[in-house]
Amino acid sequence: MSVTKIIEVVGRSSVSSDDAVKNALAEASQNLRDVKALDVVSVGLRGDNLDEWGALCRISFLVESVAD
After folding, report:
1. Calpha distance 11→23 (Å, rounded)
2. What is this structure's pTM?
3. How many Å apart are CA 56 and CA 11, to the nearest integer?
4. Chain center to CA of 67
5. Which of 19, 9, 16 is nearest to 51 (CA)?
6. Could you tell me which residues are beta bridge partners of residue 38?
7. Nearest-angstrom CA–CA distance, 29 and 38
8. pLDDT digits 0-9 by tens, 52-64
9. For residue 10, what are the β-bridge partners?
10. Can you tell me the distance from the alpha carbon of 68 to that of 59, in angstroms, rounded to the nearest whole number?
11. d(Cα 58, Cα 52) in Å, to the nearest integer?
């Protein structure tokens, strides 16, 4: 049986909301294995001049089982 863990991450981009999502996945993928899904919770503009996209994403990945 497999177990899935879900974390929330925020990606940022000055280009687009899609790029912010891609950045969130790229950064998370450097530390996570077996990523199974990404859900975009919200996107919005941030910063003093509202010139930076932020994307709140939920990423699910398999939890590795450890045998004794």
Report:
1. 5
2. 0.85
3. 7
4. 29
5. 16
6. 59
7. 11
8. 999 999 999 999 8
9. 56
10. 28
11. 20
